[in-house]
Amino acid sequence: VVELALSIGRFSAEQNSGSEIFSPASIMGVINLLLLGAGGNTRTELFRALKVDEMNNKEYHTTAANMIKNLLSRNPKALDQLQWKSETCTVEEDYSDEEVDQPTTPKSTILHIANGLFTQQNLPVSSKYMRIANQLYQASSSKVNFQDPISSAATINKWAYQATKGKIQEITSGSFSPNTNMVIASSLYFKAFWKKEFLPKITKPKEFFPEGQGRPSVLVDMMVLIECLPYHYERSMGLRMIGLPYSDNSTTMYVLMPQNSTRDKIRNLQNQLTATKIDTMISQMKLRTSTVSFPRMQLTSSTNLERSFRRLGVKSIFNSRTSDLQTMLESSSPNKERLFVSQISHKVNLSVDEQGTEGAAVTMTLIDRASSAVYFKANEPFLIYVRHDPTRLPLFYGAVFDPRG
């Protein structure tokens, strides 16, 4: 899944984008739905996209479903133990006798993952396929008439709204082709609370440089956190990496930023990263007393993944002559038309703010007096990698060039 994420990150790069955030975990769910109904060359292409060897359906889907179940569990089983999670360090709390109310952080994490299959109303979808898809991947199925794009879009958007409890209101504008007979939609909404909150009274508008220092800047609300945080400097890549843990003790936002970062350096970093490299760097992180300056963000990304899938080698499913998704249809169906995918929609909503910090009070002198071994100022382009540490599954990944979204 990590290699899939890194590949899509490279393929989805755009010239002047503000941010390119997507959810590898959710996209994996879409591929799982396709694999469940795929055969022949289509099945082979999908396995290659996941960079795993082909295996029998029961073995693969049992493993995939258990991984998702572990992801959504309140007590997930960890593949390994990260050293930094067992380390301790101290933060010098010199507040000049000022009284500081420590904010109370809510502990619940909100994670909504939903997959929907929308097919032309005259296509006889296999009841067995849908039963298994629902059991393993919580997928829902709806019949629509793509010849009526307004009505079809309304149905799909209503599903997205309900699946994300109103957090995502629109996933498609209804731009279907005349031959559209299937749409797979994937939605993910994530909201978690920091293990240690940012200091709300210090959040102030500061300069952010989308193209790097010395280029035009924009004003964004920059938050401040002083805490013991996992940190790693990868000398061979000139890369700084810091972790911002969430209160569930399972999820961490890793921020990767080259020295004197620019858009070009981020692109170069995306080309260099591998799954092994990321896992190795995370395993090498050490707790360091840190002062972090980080932008408040509200990132929403809507993407048609067809281009990325094609570049991953998944091509046959987009062609009615070569697609092999016949397992999705009833075997007794007199309809000989091949089922093929015309659109794969993916939308993400990711909020980053202080969270739960009402009533906190602190002054700028706290920053000046903090005895920090690491100063991490994210006011230039960076990558974010939100990972569920026990399963190593990336929930979100992408480049941020403008935190304003």
TrEMBL record:
GO-annotated cellular components: extracellular space
Domain of life assignment: Eukaryota
Key words, A-Z: Protease inhibitor, Serine protease inhibitor
Gene Ontology MF annotations: serine-type endopeptidase inhibitor activity
CDD domains recorded: serpin28D-like_insects (cd19597)
PANTHER family (UniProt xref): SERINE PROTEASE INHIBITOR 28DC, SERINE PROTEASE INHIBITOR, SERPIN
Similarity annotation: Belongs to the serpin family.
Name by which UniProt lists this protein: Putative salivary serpin
Native source organism of the sequence: Psorophora albipes
